[in-house]
Structures
1.
Amino acid sequence: MKLEDFRAKQAESAASEEELHEALEREFHVIGRRLRRTDGLAKSTGAAVYTDDIALPGMLHGKILRSPHPHAKIVSIDVSAALALKGVHAVITGSDMPETFGIIPWARDEYPLCLDKVRYVGDGVAAVAAVDEETACEALDCIEVEYEVLPHFLDPEEALAHPETPIHDPKKPGQNGNISKQVRLEFSYVDALMEQSDAVVEGEYYFEGTNHTAIEPHCAIGYFAPAGKLTVWSTTQVPHYLHRELARVLDLDVARVRVIQPPIGGAFGGKSEPFDLEFCVAKLAMITGRPVKILYTREEVFYAHRGRHPMLMRYKTGAVSDGRIKAVDAKTILDGGGYESFGLVTTYYSGQLITAPYTMESYRFDSTRVYTNKPCCGPKRGHGSVQPRFAIEVQLDKIAERLDIDPIELRRRNILEPGARTINEFRVNSNGFLQCLDAVEDAADWRAKYRKLPYGRGVGVAGSCYISGTNYPIYPNEMPQSAVQLQVDRSGRVAIFCGASEIGQGSDSMLAYIVSEELGVPLDYVRILSADTDLTPVDLGAYSSRVTFMCGNACIDAAQKIRQQVQQAVAEEWLCRPKHVKLAGGWAFNALDTEAKVPISEAFNMAEAKYGALGATGSYNTPKDIHGSYRGGTIGSSPAYSFTAHVAEVDVDSETGFVEVQRIWIAHDCGRALNPILVEGQMEGSAYMGFAEAIMEEHIFKETGLHNAPSLLDYKIPTSLDTPEMHSLIVESIDPEGPYGAKEAGEGPLHPSIPAIANAIYDAVGVRIDRLPFSPPRVWKAIQQRAEVD
Amino acid sequence: MIEAIQLTVNGDTREVGVPSHYTLLETLRYVLGLTGPKQGCDKGDCGACTVLLDGVPTLSCILPLQEAIGHEVTTIEGLADRDAPHPLQDAFDITGGAQCGFCTPGVLLSAAALLTRSENPTREEIRNALSGNLCRCTGYTKIYEAVELAAAALREERASQEEAP
Amino acid sequence: MLRLHPYQYHRPRELGQALQLLSEHAGDVMPIAGGTDLVPNMKHKLFTPAHLVALKGIDTLHGVERRDGEISIGAAETLNAIATHPLIRQLLPALAKASGAIAHPMIRNQATIGGNICLDTRCTYYNQTLFWRKALGYCLKKDGDVCHVVKGGTKCVAAHSADTPPILMALNAEINLASADGYRSLSLDDFFTADGVCNTVRQPHELVTRLRVPVPSPRLSMSYQKLRERKSVDFPLISLALALELDDKQVVESIALVVAALGAKPRRIGGLDKLTVGERVTAEKVEEVAQQAYRQCNPLDNIIVDVEWRRAMVPVYVRRAFREILS
């Protein structure tokens, strides 16, 4: 293609003057349009520089030595032979960084390198820095570690039964050291209301552990400048939290530590806390005076893990004959793996987050997170709520059948009103769940298909709700959760500085769209510099689906300050009212006389002449006190909630047990789609990930504690040929507090995949698969058993 | 052992001093500084390292470097014309075919090879051609749309070139 | 990333040179064609030869031609070339299908049919990194003396995992081997042995040069069936080929059914002549064959998939093979 053709195509996507005049009639001229990303071409030309793409002069390569035992005391480590190896610059062990860290400030239970014991196969015990990776590997082979092997537990119920072999010291004397967290909450009176139910359904559900499997493995580079400043480049999605922990563990002034997050090759929650490699590259850089890089092998990514908690869930649900839910009683055991990670939050979420979209007259949950000698579990897209959502949505399907009510209709009869509080006192503002149900019912032709397709084919429905960020940050403080700084150049160029983590979800682009909307600059006048703690104001990171809501609001805050200055300055020149000065498409023009217009740069110059250098900061903080006053009431409280409904259509081969998901219809209430392409991308990507967990992913272990399949060949994620057709249906409920009404779209759309597929399998072949994944052997056996019974 | 090896990459032929046991990917990324092809899984399971060898999609992370001698290697950096993106790259940008972008270089090269073979590929043919490239972000839908868009753009380009010689 | 050990890479242009190199460096040399199986295995430190002898540059190992009533296939032909070759598609369609179903497009562009025939056997305790295998305590096939699949087992049960041998065996293919000492040729059945450690009789200094398949009779129909978890990338859980010769009254003149991926050696299902030759192919007859196959196939936990299910799938895919042929 010729350059002039490409430029012509780019210009097409910018608004023409006619479109701008039309835009004066519409609400927005950028928001809501199907636009390119700001980083799309960098990614499709190979120009984007990811962490492992960075090479610094004199850079050394690091490797971490990992435990071959699932549970053992470290008796001694002898690194002398490794140090003596030619090309090795430094070797460190746990005693070089004897400070614990953890993402939850009051649950710091990890050392960068294990100090006295190892808790899973893969737990790090030493690290080396050498001239190249091969030498570093050789050096690891020279390190002698003496272990005293301890009994290990791979099953949480087994771990619970053996408090005499605690994986961690008990939090209080006399407690079971294998319990990570226990939460019991009851709202209203479950037992009494269960008695009043006409239909009571009980079920046991098991959600297998899964890994995030971002295509980019973790990577970090540390550099300690002669002036005494540490820089760490990392594939982290939480640069601010990493910044704090690095300083604390390494005993450095936090103002002399810099964390830079380059473009990331996928995260999904797998990079949302500090990891051993980040501390190791920093420490090794400090010791050697050279930059040090560590790149995980794919196997190490499985050991670092922090993926979906396996959950064993026992549910009892009662409803009256018209379908209204009277009582839900849930008992859950979470398999936490070797450490805490976000465990406290996960344990709460496993109960707190299913009280929407449905009303329930009473609710009780009892969740226990248990340590086991396996890689630690943490947040994976839909943190802690995907598993219970599977259970409750299948429970509802069973109730619908028992009461002979259509499953979509059953859900309609239990809808939370917009603006209502959930039974556990979360404030749900905008709520488009009803429209989501309508959308999938219609698009999937549900009424013609449900219980009407021939044997082997079926449809299933499920709904869900998810947070758009959390009202409380991970470390308690009163400061904003998100901030944006803008700086305007005389050329019209606007720079956005924001701590937000672009992980592929489009957060950089989202900020650019907002600035383009508010200040009228073309998209390619906008520069985004994100996630560099030396240059960007704090944003807490890409987790809990907070970025669009919080950074978006902070950006609007900053942009509107500058907009007002520009409008005021231009209005004074044109002798009109500031509100009639419109900024759009590269121009400032008078809404009442569109002949009066100047290029936007000129408008900026007028403002700079009047006010001085143009720049503004904006912040956003979450509402407090919109949660219950009971202990734990804050966990799950969010400024806004998204809603999703799926219908899945499946083809089950009853001869083999293969479940082929033909189509998934995804309706998601994202408040407002700032760019529908990005929202659809999140909906499709989420549904893909949910489908993958439902059908094929299994993060499981052999008796020895060794990971069953630590490679992308053996740990199965769907290829293009495995992935169903997906149809995205955006619903906009326009949230009163979201940026232009927007809410999250990054995690919510994953939840209903799994139960919708489970319910569709039941519609197709009459068997309930209550355990993940719905693999061919499992489905086949269930069909065989049913055939025997019949 | 360091050997001087003659390689042709993205149209440039030159001698490169490199440990003779390196794979093509290690050479491209760590010796030539072409970081477009990515390292995702160490051993050929994910497709992120895909390059073209004489126009044929090949996994560079499991190709012994010396197998590239005498052949033309094309990485993502060599896909575009000098000053304008390839229609596939533009199409990915339009449809949202790249989210995190890590699988993108590999996917684009597999797609580019497909479009060289087939002017109007069906959705099924596209899925087949990309069946060795894992993507974790997009669910593939917008990738297919991008390939179809690019195929249409290329057909149009060809048609207009034929009209005006 | 997983790095390779230092090796010397030889690129002979002539077969003789290659064979010479294999003899010269005996004990520390391996041949390499596509490398799509060997290189990952080397990254796993399962093989660390100081010398690799590249085969793709040797002309005599290429080419697909019909001569002397046989189709002669060069061992260095890529899987993609086999899957798309007009002669193979016309005369050996199930071989084209089998080749085209292996792994995914990039692998098929690099891998060769000779490499597929000689594919190393696989097992969940073997195809792992050095760190993983060391933590395990190694296994019978590599560096250890314990089989983790069959407790107390003294024989390795790693699985044959290639897709092209079943149909080649069902068609009574022969394989040519060359070494510095001379040439030999044997039936593909005799090429494989039931030993998980090394499941072929190829000596380390020998090379597979050509495969020769008798041109099938016009009355012969064939089918290839593959079971795997995903629709791409994965090795087979069952790899099955059926070759059936019927007269104009649908009466069986000859039958061959080979099932692989369950044990170290592809299994030619026995007793089928007695069962079917001279009989018409009815639904009942198909079922008898399917059950015969079931009785003779015993998958183990070498690949971690439910064993009962995998075994139960054998008759299912036998039926599907018949269905493909008869439709």
Note: Residues 234 and 261 of chain A are 5 Å apart (CA to CA).
2.
Amino acid sequence: MKASSRKRVAKEIVIDDQFCKGCNLCIEVCPRKVFAKSGKRNRSGYSMPQAADMGKCSACFLCEMTCPDLAITIIEENP
Amino acid sequence: MHPLANKYIRKRTLPLIFCPGCGDGTVLNVFLRAVDDLGIFKELALVGGIGCSGWLPTYLQSDILHVLHGRAIPFACGLKLTDPRRKVVVFTGDGDCVGIGGNHFIHAARRNIDLTVIMINNGIYGMTGGQVAPTTPLQGRTQTSPYGNLEPPFDVCDLARSAGATYVARWTAAHPVQLLKTIKEGIEHPGFTFIEVMAQCPTQAGRYIEGTSNAGELLNLLKKRSVSQEKAKETPPEEMTGKFVVGKLHHLTGKKEFSQAIYESFLPEKSR
Amino acid sequence: METLVIHGNEACARGAIAAGCRFFAGYPITPASEITEVMSRLLPRTRGVFLQMEDEIASICAILGAAWGGAKTCTATSGPGFTLMQEGIGWAAETDTPVVVIDVMRGGPATGQPTSSSQQDVMQAKYGSHGDYEVIVLVPSSAQEAFDLTVKAFNLAEVFRNPVILLTDEIVGHTREKVRIPEKVEIVERRKPATNPADYVPFRSAAKGLLDGMPAFNQGYGILVDGQLHDEFGGRAGHKPEVSAAMVERICRKITDHADELADVEEWMLEDAEIAFIAFGSPARPALRAAKDARTQGIKAGFLKLRVLWPFPDKIIARVARQARRVIVPEMNMGKVFREVKRVVAGNAEVISLPKLGGEVHTPAEILRSMFSDQ
């Protein structure tokens, strides 16, 4: 992640259901409330979050950096 | 899988051993970015102590020593001094670093040997089930302080600084952006770098000391308890109870780095 | 060839340097401090790193880290420090790390007799750390052997990728004698694995149960060295009973399977001996004297000196016992190696313990007298 003055835009937030442990830190740290519980469980039985409202996302990358399981990847619009 | 995980993590060791919501995972996340940004993967030599935080380096594809409880720092000294070009990073917990490891910690700081020690502080001995630690807050209830901890905790950054560390910083798992910058600076700093990361422990400290295992709530508690250096200057001591100062707390250049001192002290071979 | 008059401690230090030791971390302790002092003078002239660490635990850990950093390494201590180092020695055995640990035995237990000799650590040298593991233990009886066996210790550490203990004692350490240092000393060089990094399986036995070379950090191997029981790749395996068992068996058999070739003894007139003295370290010298005196008196005495104590030379001892009808074991402890000899002899001969405590070594007369005692 490089410091840049270019405005970054998130096209998609991918949550890897193989590694997510449903800790919901992404829901907690997102300053724009993009995340919400999905109501679905992954193969390990964890209740997973989802990026419910991409429109609000400001591409701050806090979710991606905080995720303790490296399960979140932000796909950028123009990387 | 995140591209950084794909690039640096040992796939056969996944999934990560950390409990859901553990601050250790965030530190690993940030550390991978630091390694990638600095481009130092080939020079990395990692050492992990015993405890949850000690597992952190074992997930990377670099060369790693997973050593004895409290002894990560002397192992790291051996690695550093056999080739000072190495970037030696130690991952340790509060018990590992200043409980059993206290003596090695203060002497390595005194020597100002170029190591980066990242101590992840959850205020408890987590791996063994949640016993009291040298960093547990007063009154904290744990498995070995069931009526409340009677021992005042260390201010480990203070200890590091007085022992001679030349780069001292503290952040929390709620400050990944700042932590990334600090880790990069700390690794580049030619001297003893100590970075304390206050981290949430949902399973042990969360349940026993804070009364919740909700990672988000615990993270918010860390944020609330963090006080910037500027703010701390204006805050009376009574209001600082239960809080801690975050930021780059101490940065000294010009003190001789130890491995350099050793290598400069070599003498010509004596003829018999 | 260089001839020096030096004590055993200095001989150990010079042997280490000759063997290629370029990293030493130690802590002062009587009667071993001279080793640390001599290393502090010699190492900087070889571009080797000398450290006096904050304690013995830091010392053993620093040399273990340095071994993985690529150096031949060593530390030196005595009883109390040796006790502190046991966790590190166990870690070294568990991780196949080559290091040499010198223990200059003194009177124990606890603070004991710092300035007097003993052989009380003989079992601790083998069984000091928790868990199942093996070490090789060498026991010099003179300053020359202190030099020679220290070199051998380093070579064995390299071949077997294991901690090797050089178990000397205060008398050997502090007695000044002639030591001949050859121009060229035969050493086993640190060898990188023959396999390239992409295919290298770090903890898989290669030929004869030994490992393929010793990688160092930052050579591209990406090696995970873990004190927890692990699989061949270094990955955690404590939760897998078969893998855990296999790993412990491998590190033990790595040494025990080579017990016969590791045996190193000196024999004197054992072919027709009726009474055999089996000794090691300082008592070996009065024991040989006693055997020679016995012969002049017409007694068929023989002498066996152990230079490698562990693995115990079962086959050789058994052979001696088939010839001799009485075996005498003088040692400066309560009678520890005596029990090993008795185990091996298994009733084929009478085994007599000749313990001596207090710090002084047996006199030849004492050992001679023991031939006639009824135990």
Note: The mean pLDDT of chain A is 92.
3.
Amino acid sequence: MTHPDGMAVAAEAPRPRRRRLTRAAIGRGTVPYLLILPVVGVLGALLAYPIYRLVILSLQKYTLFELIRHKGVWVGLDNFSSILHDQVFWHTVLRTVIFTVANVGLTIAGGLALALLLVRVSGWVRILLTSGLVLVWAMPQVVAVQVWYWMTNYQNGVVNYVLTQLHIGDFFQHDWYASTFSQLSLVTLLIVWGALPFVAITLYAALSQVPRELVEAAEIDGARPRRVFLDVTLPILTPVLLILTSLSILWDFGVFTQAYLLIGPSHITPGNYLMSIYLFQEGFQKADYGKGSAISIVMLVIVAALSFFYVRKMVRVGEVE
Amino acid sequence: MSARSARRTGWNVVGVAVFVVMVFPVFWMISTAFKPTDEVNSQTPTWFSGHPTVQHFADAIHKPFFWDSVKNSVIIVLIAVAISMVLAFLAAVALAKYRFTGRKLFIVLMIGIQMLPGAGLIIPLYVVLARYHQVDTLTGVIVVYISAVLPFSVWTLRGFILGIPKELEEAAMVDGSTRLGAFARILLPLVAPGLVATSVFAFITSWNEYIFARILLNDQSKQTVTVWLSYFLGTSRNTDWGALMAASTLTAIPVVVFFLLVQRRIAFGLTAGAVKG
Amino acid sequence: MRLRVVAVAAMAVLLGLVAATASASPQRAQANKLTVWLQVDAQSGWPDVVAAANAQFQKDHAGWTVDVQYQNWGDHLQKFDATLAGGNTPDVIEMGNTEMVKYMAAGAFSDLSSFKSSFANSGSWLKGLAASGTYGGKTYGVPYYAGSRVVTYRTDAWNKAKIKKPPSSLAQFTAYAKKLAAANKSVKGFSPVYIAGTDWYFAMSFVYDYGGSIAKTQGGKWVGNLDSKQSIAGLTAFKNFFNVASKASKTSDENHPAPYDVYSQGGAASIIGPGWFSCCVGTKYKGVTAQFVMPSHTAGQAMPGFLGGSDLAVPAPSKNAALAADWIKDFTSTDAQRALQAKGNIPNATNLLGTSVNERAATRSWFVPAAKHWVDVENGNILRNMLAQILKGKLTVKQAAASASDNITSVLNGS
């Protein structure tokens, strides 16, 4: 049976592109909308009202009292004003930004290093290492936190024991949760440890797509390994690195579970708040949902600003067609 | 030759060392699960128990609602992942292959939604679900998980589809089929690894999710595995560390198994679209 | 082919709709179901008491079932808030006694004053517990059970250090601690009395023992009182006792690690905690474990102990308030209280009190300020932080107390 479209292609052979687009404008116009309709439908049905509510709540006084009566009190931008005038907020933002930079940096650098390692080892070591990474990736967050806490606990943690045995120092009953720096360093280690598998495996897969010929050609030309990496490999990895970096920024800035549980509810003070913990403490624990909503919006703005550069690049990369 | 193999051995040593360090917490969890309680709490840690016991595993399995929670988690996660993949794939095709007004807006929304702090949405989401009578139901949780996973999946799948070489698609056109027909017959198999990779990610995110499952599910027979685990620590009384480690090991097993099965596919899948952006 | 496109798209839309609005679920709340939220402690500790109450209730109200849903201490309030927002609260909820005021002040509970006489022993409820369930003269919470703190110790270790009987004063206890430390020099990190650094429940006992307090009301406002002379004396006494008696981490709380775990490994000769600690001291020392009441700095008296406990309340949105009150009546009957008492808890009425160490310790007690923002002080770890700073020597007792006091004043008076 003849196809109207097929015939069009055959007949207009010299200039197929233009014709096809013309038809597309009319006939195929509705198809993309139908395709995205389910996603829009689900997300709209579930998230439209909560997001709307989030914005409304941020402009209201809505504590437990108001929650029980299902009625808030309009206060305009008071919530935002009180947040922006709060010293704790600014310190927390700074702390979280530094924390995010450290985490993302270590994750991407570590992941890249691991990926490069995976390329250079023998087959059996590669399988061993990949399986290990998979085991780590598969561990649920709450479980990982418990295990890490258990390993670093004051009374009989194995980390203290090993460090003492290795004569790195006397770590008998060393309290890893005594100072903010120590607490956040542990949290960073935990998060980076959990994030490395995804990044390493993705980068390794990307590395194996780098065409051998290009690498060999560069080497024949006398380029040193570092030059080869920078000039040949890295450009090819760029799209993947962009994705991974922007995702990491999103996740690490807003991380809650690992930080809150590892530091422990009894060690949380304004002195070691991260943004999500600040949100939890000020919004939920104090049952001040208006303020919590305002903090959520502020967090969204900050994260958007932090990842703007990477996201814009990603959107552009895919626009070439 | 020998310089190269020496270097390779060097890297192998590094590789094994990295393996040991990375996997140590997992090893510690499993090893603790087999230790009798006295050893678990002892001041001097032991690497491998002198008197391994499976009592903790028995305790964990016999703790109320273990099998129920495993069943619930499996149901929720499988349905959520399956539906998200279908929906996300369709939307990704639209984004990658068609020009239409509102495309840029849709992309921005997909990224923007991922930037929302989940904590801020818990109460409003709960209210919405309560209105639809979906609180304390598996379907309510499934819908929440689908929404959580969709933006990332759409975004990633778009990348994979963009990575399919145009020549293959055009070859199919000349064949006499429509664009959508071409997708179904030729491109879908090519995107399959990408689908697998994205579904693995969706699987892990859903399986490990805690907060929404906790807030939305009350009936203990409907709870997921992560919520069931939290009961080990929720009491103000005796925390059984051995049993908690055993329970943790048990709950990690399905994910690891699923993972090892699809592991090869992931590597291939992640690259197929990722490298070409 | 166009048909195929439409078919595929329609399928997808249908799937999406099914996912989004699956309200065909048969999970509607049953008409005759009473929903009860109890903490997980009841599930593992006294399930028989729960079962008995359910059976009695179902006998009295034919056609009704009781659905008990167990909660964790860590997130049960977040869940409760969600149900308050969604309008589907449980009919009965167990609340910690320090959690009550905030919710009573917000109007979260139904007034149970008219049912008070039907609750067993309500005429002689423990003052401290009953107070936590009262607001504005009305009863919103029914005392469920209480707990106090005692000293659990190893008679073998004490005998070895030539200590004959429990101390009658703080000074004597301190001397004993020194003896125990000397006798156990070979055990690294040994604590004569294991006390967690930020165990504020124990530390504040010292404050109240010396006549101080955490906060008091002055002209309708709350004022932090930790910087008063008596409070500072108490804090200093705590610091001195800790330094002699405990090798625990100065920043750890009283649950991490569990003191009885340290005890069972031979890391402590005594521990401070609830009476039920004796359950979990490990096989090695089970036979040589005994308890006594923590002595005051004044000889012959008990140091005031923190009276922990739980209340049972009926959330205001519940449509079954009368039935909920009836279930509470069944669950706090004299028989039920006796059963709880047998499991090491303190019953809710003075006429039921026995002479166990646990109950003797409850005779002299203290409680947190009855302020609706008290939970914010707890959640903000203000007291814990203060103790950590004092013990680590970062601040003097005076400085730390002054700073904490100011903090408490502003938090308690917050809107």
Note: Confidence is low (pLDDT under 50) at residues 1-27 of chain A.
